[in-house]
Amino acid sequence: MHAIPEAHGATLTRHEHHGLYPKAASVADFERNLATVQSRMAQACRRADRDPGSVRLLPVSKTMDEASIRLAHAAGCRLLGENKVQEAHRKWEALSDLAGLRWSVIGHLQTNKARLVARFADEFQALDSLRLAEALDRRLQAEGRSLDVFVQVNTSGEASKYGLPPEEVEGFVKALPAFGALRVRGLMTLALLSTDAPRVRQCFALLRTLRERLRQNAPASVQLDELSMGMSGDFEIAIEEGATVVRVGQAIFGARALPDSHYWPDASDHREPA
Ligand SMILES: *Cc1c(COP(=O)(O)O)cnc(C)c1O
To answer: Residue 247's beta-bridge partner residues?
Structure first.
């Protein structure tokens, strides 16, 4: 075989490989998986002519137990992503002995659970309504805390996905300076969960072009530097399209017991048949 460097447009998704990630069962397993992901990130950066230091890896620990998270921490993980706030809060309490461990909530949040996020989270990536922004701000002010937030955008057009439709983001962002405890960092999206790489890439490109457009007249207190996009199956494509944060679970921790369709109800519809 010829060692032809992969052309940009040819990077594939790896969603079909999810079931193959072995469970990380030791600190050495975590170190190896982290090194592998970092090296794939660096290669994607090189293909896109980007500085590898411009992309941050957010390990996602949802469904993983305490023992597994302790190993990840020993391997150097300090900020972990969780998509359900109650699970995240439970882990925050149980693992409070681990030095420097911080939590990023990356999944949809009901307004009545804003209080929990305000108490312990360092980052929230799924802001998608003004009611929620208002509730978070009020709870944060009461706790004397502030929170880094990302506005979630629905770039796939799927009805089951959370996030604002792209055309509503500009008006939404203009209203955010009213909430002083929220530090707006950028945009977040979940691409179509599909093995169809060009359609996945379109979702990421849409988030980037939206960000470029919004940046031109965003309020001064709103930063739109960050693009959180890409997960185990598609983070290389996301980096080629400008991701500054990739959220990676299974490629670090091992496959989850539950299928993706548990988190994203229509995910299985887009899979190739096995
Ligand atoms: C679970 C999850 C991820 C990570 O998915 P993996 O397939 O485990 O890499 C990324 N983002 C969100 C919002 C998630 O819920």
So the answer is: 58
